[in-house]
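re: ur question from earlier - yeah i can do the single chain one, its not a big deal. heres the input i used so u can compare w yours
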Amino acid sequence: MRGARPECDPGHASLQTKVVKPAVEATTDEITSELQEALKEADMVDMHLEVDIIPVSDVDRAKQFYQSLGWRLDGDDSPLPGLRIVQFTPPGSAASVTFGQGLTTAAPGSAEGGLTVSDIVAAHDELTGRGIDTSHIWHGPPFPVEARQPGPDPDHTSYGSFCSITDPDGNTWLVQEVTTRRPGV
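and the output i got, formated as tokens:
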């Protein structure tokens, strides 16, 4: 029986069953606090994705593209000869992208990243309104391409609708609609 555990009654030799119900309603702060406590108890380090380095061939062209997305420019620094670090953060994101000169040996255009939005149609409209070449919206699994169905998911199911954009080097960003987060995410 799911959600049940045997419990020994000291006065009887038989086993009894006690149903354990998980808390149904909890705030994000309460869940975050519980997860952080569980990580401490499990002796795990809390990790946050902060920066993803993407390979580009032309730093100024990439900078212009990410500015056209409306992303915040966090910095453009050249601390040493042959090293240039440009960082952008998407609106509302805790993670940033960094590109430049002397940062990675990966081939320009080889990166793939994911962006989440609460409304795929609004995001698609904003991207195309900014002059960004944006794919059509589709629903179903993102891969294989043959499994994609045209248009947004009719029920706007979380993790079910997508579009994509590509920067001038060919780095691809999969834009995914998330309307409700799964527990623990």
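The radius of gyration is 23 Å. not sure if urs matches, ping me
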